[in-house]
Amino acid sequence: MKFFLDTANISEIEEGVSWGCVDGVTTNPTLISKELVGKGDFKTLVRKILDVVDGPVSLEVTSTKADDMVREGKKLRTLGDNVVVKIPTTVEGLKALKILKSQKIKTNATLVFSVNQALMVAKAGASYASPFVGRLDDISEDGMSLIEDIREVYDNYDFETEILVASVRHPIHVKEAALIGADVATMPFEVFKKLISHPKTDEGIKRFMDDWGKIDKKKLMF
Ligand code: E4P
């Protein structure tokens, strides 16, 4: 399974990439605005992200009409070969997905909340479909069961669209997404950090170091 970082924060991206486990990045208008309010411009920020990340970087359009989405998407795509254009899951979005696919531009259909929406964006040619599991959990629906259902439907019909699990809130989301066979999980850096930590690992290292400290170092071979 691929791991994407769901952030536009350059320090988080640099740190994550240095761990060798980051396959890409997703952003959205909220994440971009967090980094830009009162400091810097969009193009400079995006260029920095694209410099650090080899894999796909999703950048979201803010237009609502298909033609405008396509125009904006094509502009975003000029920023780098690995730019994936993020398109909202609406009727206008479907039209934009179709056009961008015909122009060989990769897309990420965002704000997917149902199997039928996932089917529609796959048929329209989305490269990725992003179901938001955390936001479904927020309204007492089971976000992960949506991932299970989409996996089954995409496999039934051999859709090539990748399932990009989004709105990930904690490590259990990541584990469950991997068990289901989702293609990608995108997560905040805070969740990414938690994937590697385990109290028994910390306890084990401490015990080894304490015991090692008891040895007379002069008696070691090196
Ligand atoms: C996905 O691409 C979105 O940026 C993201 O996962 C949204 O998650 P949120 O519900 O935590 O805002």
Describe this structure in words.
It is built from eleven helices and eight strands. With 222 residues, the protein is of the alpha/beta class. The protein has one domain (2-219): Aldolase class I (TIM Barrel, Alpha-Beta Barrel). Strand 4, helix 5 and strand 5 form a beta-alpha-beta unit. The protein is globular and about 75 Å long. The N and C termini lie far apart (41 Å). The protein binds erythose-4-phosphate. Erythose-4-phosphate is lined by residues 6, 26, 28, 110, 130, 132, 134-135, 166-167, 186.
What is the strand and helix layout of this fold?
Blueprint: E1 2-6, H1 10-18, E2 24-26, H2 29-36, H3 42-52, E3 57-60, H4 66-77, E4 83-88, H5 91-102, E5 107-112, H6 115-124, E6 128-131, H7 133-138, H8 143-156, E7 162-165, H9 171-180, E8 184-187, H10 189-196, H11 199-213
Parallel strand pairs: 1-2, 1-8, 2-3, 3-4, 4-5, 5-6, 6-7, 7-8
Helix pairs in contact: 1-3, 4-5, 6-8, 8-9
The structure holds erythose-4-phosphate (E4P).
Radius of gyration: 20 Å
Class, according to the CATH hierarchy?
Alpha Beta
Work out the strand percent.
15-25%
Which CATH architecture would you pick? Alpha-Beta Barrel
> Could you name the ranges where pLDDT drops below 50 across 5 or more consecutive residues?
none
Mean pLDDT: 96
Across the major sheet, the strand order is: 1-2-3-4-5-6-7-8
What is the straight-line distance between the termini?
A: 41 Å
Give me the secondary-structure category: alpha/beta
Strand tally, please?
A: 8
* Overall tally of domains: 1
Order of helix and strand elements from N to C terminus? EHEHHEHEHEHEHHEHEHH
Small ligands present: erythose-4-phosphate
Shape: globular
Largest beta-sheet characterization: 8 strands, parallel, barrel
CATH superfamily: Aldolase class I
* Percent range of helical residues: 40-55%
CATH fold-level label: TIM Barrel
Count of helix runs:
11
